[in-house]
Specification:
single chain; alpha/beta; Dihydrofolate Reductase, subunit A; two-stranded antiparallel ribbon; 18% helix
């Protein structure tokens, strides 16, 4: 059965998945970039830049995050630093060839025409309810999994609705102090999650929560 997954999503020691005050200069909020220091050196990330990277446990988890993914779901804040109606000719943070390479559904209160990018990524902008977005994503995935890329609010909504099957959460050695808490007001135990993987490296602790 295809799954709805969260993968390689990093949080701070104090539970924040993004820092405060997201902006063009701070895509992950102030201090949020430090959450992903485990990811930046990996071969998975570096090959996007045309460079060599490190192998090992961190890279293994990063690789798994992209395996068998046929569609993505993103929140508006994950796609853009701008709010309100689309007044910017904004095509995402990632340049002409985003890393998704498949249909990607962006949840927003302000719909716009689909945006086709290089490498097979097409962004679909939708204001539909969670269940309808997920239905469309699974249909587009063609039997593969759907991955929620973030941000925090989007993941929180899908988890609270009991729709997420598996989460790979990365605990980074960072304290943010404020920002967006990933599991705010969520009882993971009541939702049926248990920790099936807990593995540390020099840069992070990888946890897999499954139902």
């Amino acid at each position: 059965m295809p799954k709805l997954r969260v993968a390689s999503f990093a949080i701070s020691i104090d539970g924040f998945g993004a820092g405060p005050n997201q902006s063009l200069e701070n895509p992950l909020g102030i201090g949020g970039g430090g959450l992903h220091e485990w990811f930046y050196p990996t071969q998975t990330f570096q090959k996007m830049m045309g460079r060599d990277g490190t192998l090992g446990t961190d890279n293994d988890f990063a690789v798994r995050g992209f395996e068998n993914v046929g569609a993505w779901i993103l929140g508006r804040n994950m796609f853009s630093p701008y709010r309100g109606p689309w007044t910017q000719d904004w095509k995402g943070w990632w340049g002409d060839n985003p890393p998704y390479h498949c249909p990607t559904f962006v949840m927003t209160h302000h719909e716009r025409a689909p945006l086709e990018m290089e490498g097979g990524t097409t962004f679909h902008f939708t204001s539909e309810p969670l269940e309808r977005v997920l239905e469309r994503a699974f249909a587009a995935a063609g039997g593969k999994d759907v991955r929620i890329g973030g941000g925090v609010s989007t993941i929180n909504q899908f988890v609270a609705a009991g729709l997420v099957d598996e989460m790979h959460i990365v605990l980074s050695p960072v304290i943010l102090g404020s920002g967006e808490r990933l599991f705010e007001s969520i009882d993971l135990k009541a939702l049926g999650y248990s920790c099936t993987v807990f593995q540390g490296t020099n840069r992070a602790v990888h946890m897999v929560l499954s139902k």
